[in-house]
Amino acid sequence: MATAAGTIWVIAETNADGTLAKSSAEVATLARTLAEAAKASAVGIVVAADPKAAAHELAGYVPRVVAIAEPAADGNAWAQVAAQRVAPILASEAPAAVLTGAGPDGRDVAGTLAALLERPVLVNATAVAWDGGPSVEMSAFGGKLITTSAFADGEWGIVTVRPNVVTAEKASAAGKVEARKADGELELPVIKIVDRIEEAAAALPIEEARIIVAGGRGIGGEEGFKLVGEIADALGGAVGATRAAVDSGWIPYAQQIGQTGKIVKPQLYLALGISGAIQHKVGMQTAGTIIGVNRDPDAPIAEFADLVVIGDLFEVGKALLAELGSRG
Amino acid sequence: MRIVVLTKPVPDPAAAAERLTPDGRLDRAASPAVINGNDEYVLEAALKLSEAHGGEVTLLSMAPPNAVETMRKGLAMGAHRGVLVTDPALTGSDQWSTIQVLVAALGELEYDLVLAGFDTSDGVGGVVGAAVATRLKLPYLSSAARIEPDPDKGTVRVRRISPTGFDVLEAPMPALIVGTQLLGEPRYPSLKGIMAARSKEIVTHSLADLGLDGAAVGGKAARTKVTDQRKPPARGATQVVRGAPEEGAKAIVELLASRRLI
Ligand SMILES: Cc1cc2nc3c(=O)[nH]c(=O)nc-3n(C[C@H](O)[C@H](O)[C@H](O)COP(=O)(O)OP(=O)(O)OC[C@H]3O[C@@H](n4cnc5c(N)ncnc54)[C@H](O)[C@@H]3O)c2cc1C
Ligand SMILES: Nc1ncnc2c1ncn2[C@@H]1O[C@H](COP(=O)(O)O)[C@@H](O)[C@H]1O
């Protein structure tokens, strides 16, 4: 085991069923890669009422996992409870860096830890390298500028990592899980979940899709999204949307892509009736291939797509379905 | 209900003129400032709550002196007053400084709720709300799609967006809530609102006013540094296809096939 001074910690999130969140597998992979470069060790932490399943999964990515059983992590808002269990461990071990996801829970954990440990934070990393400490690439101003940042000399801090910027890859050998009981009072107010409201989920979550077919205001209504769905099915992809489509009530918020929606990085992004406003672009501009269908040749999407087809999206969309169908 | 809304003036994303100075600080002269878009959602929620339950909405910003102009828009939307923390020593602040300054400024105010935006369009951090709540030991409720206070019981319920729908959270007030766009479209200032905003009070605090030391917070105390900045690699040229729908469809399929996407 490496010395405590050289430890890169990952705070993992779990899914509702107790399995490891995809973004945490990504961050754990990153931590292991950084630890190799830094000649440090990577350690994961899971805080949950029953951390077993996620901890064992996490041990597939990092050599050591601390699993903390905390009953209050279930039935209450999770992040602050988790941060309070993690904070004393970090405080006693002087980490080299702490990584979390940059999704809603990861941010909450990072913000809480920053406050509890009085530590600096670098946010929303699109890549992290090691140069005596984490060297953090960020996308600023909606992708117009890329910056690299570091902690000041002699500091360690917390880095939140954007989803879909690292590909999760298991280690060659599984790590060890160390079970611990949570002890001590929780000093921050514990926030009770008094009710849960389930919404119909999309068949394929957009964060995990290799192909996304997205619709904007040009789709015109719920009815129009049927065509988007058919094209997505034909390509084996998921359906995404702009805020304009979500605000109009044509599609659930869970499918919104952009600054206040999901950040995605599919291999193909097919944008139908989407202008490509900066707040939408930040959520999809790193897609492998971007294709737009728009009747306005001056729509901003024409400036960053690989291909734009100028025309009516319903006509082009139907022709595309026919063309795909004829290929069998 | 006394509600404080944390609003950050940010470079207008629509102007697309943002840049950094050579030492990696935001060049605030390069770009007009607006209220951070995500902060307008929580401001709208605050205004609706004060309309329903009575009370006052206070805007709190840490920003350069010209933020007074940006704050006027929030006042024109209906906020009652503004508090601006501004000090030359704050130039180049990192998140940790921002957190401490907002905590100190909140210490001077009375409130039932503090509302913060989901994140900022310039920094995309989304960590300030949680950190401020933690320092103040306030109940913290995030990713809010709906905010329902019960002033008689002294509690607040929040619908928090979850991966599978919503979790309904409940906490005693005062509390700090981070909101989202699902709170609803922000209003435009009315002409009457714009007129009224001119005479509304904006209180300005320096670091010394808040009992903070310019060597311990702000640019001099920054614990993160920008080491490099560059333009993103350009994407390839855009192929533009006009003509019959079938030609467009063919062009799409050819590109997908050539990139092995089908
Ligand atoms: C704080 C803030 C956060 C935001 N967050 C997000 C976000 O997360 N995600 C997001 O998407 N937006 C976000 N926005 C909104 C964003 O600024 C744009 O308003 C939005 O992305 C526009 O959506 P759209 O492209 O569908 O609509 P529009 O901009 O109206 O574009 C519709 C396009 O469809 C084309 N069109 C119409 N009919 C047809 C047809 N029949 N055939 C072909 N083309 C057609 C039009 O030419 C046009 O280009 C945010 C805004 C703010 C202020
Ligand atoms: N300088 C600031 N002044 C006022 N509020 C701020 C400031 N910085 C951040 N905030 C608040 O904290 C939220 C999250 O900010 P951030 O973590 O920087 O993305 C913002 O949406 C604001 O509500």
Characterize this entry briefly.
Chain A has helices at residues 22-38, 52-58, 78-93, 104-117, 224-235, 243-247, 278-281, 313-326, and strands spanning 7-11, 41-48, 64-69, 97-101, 121-130, 134-140, 145-151, 158-161, 176-181, 192-198, 211-215, 238-241, 268-272, 289-294, 307-310.
SSE arrangement:
The complex is a heterodimer of chains A (328) and B (262).
Chain A: E1 7-11, H1 22-38, E2 41-48, H2 52-58, E3 64-69, H3 78-93, E4 97-101, H4 104-117, E5 121-130, E6 134-140, E7 145-151, E8 158-161, E9 176-181, E10 192-198, E11 211-215, H5 224-235, E12 238-241, H6 243-247, E13 268-272, H7 278-281, E14 289-294, E15 307-310, H8 313-326
Parallel strand pairs in A: 1-2, 1-4, 2-3, 3-9, 4-8, 5-8, 11-12, 11-13, 13-14, 14-15
Antiparallel strand pairs in A: 5-6, 6-7
Helix pairs in contact in A: 3-4, 5-8
Chain B: E1 2-6, E2 9-11, E3 33-35, H1 37-53, E4 56-62, H2 67-77, E5 81-85, H3 95-106, E6 113-116, H4 128-136, E7 140-150, E8 155-162, E9 165-172, E10 175-179, H5 191-197, E11 202-205, E12 224-230, E13 239-241, H6 245-258
Parallel strand pairs in B: 1-4, 1-6, 4-5, 5-11, 6-10, 7-10
Antiparallel strand pairs in B: 2-3, 7-8, 8-9
Residues 216-218, 242-245, 256-261, 273-275, 277, 279-280, 283, 293-296, 299, 312-314 of chain A line the site of flavin-adenine dinucleotide.
Task: Please write the CATH class name of chain B.
Answer: Alpha Beta
* Unreliably modeled segments of chain B: none
The CATH superfamily of the largest domain in chain A is known as HUPs
End-to-end distance of chain A, in Å? 55 Å
* Mean pLDDT across residues of chain B: 94
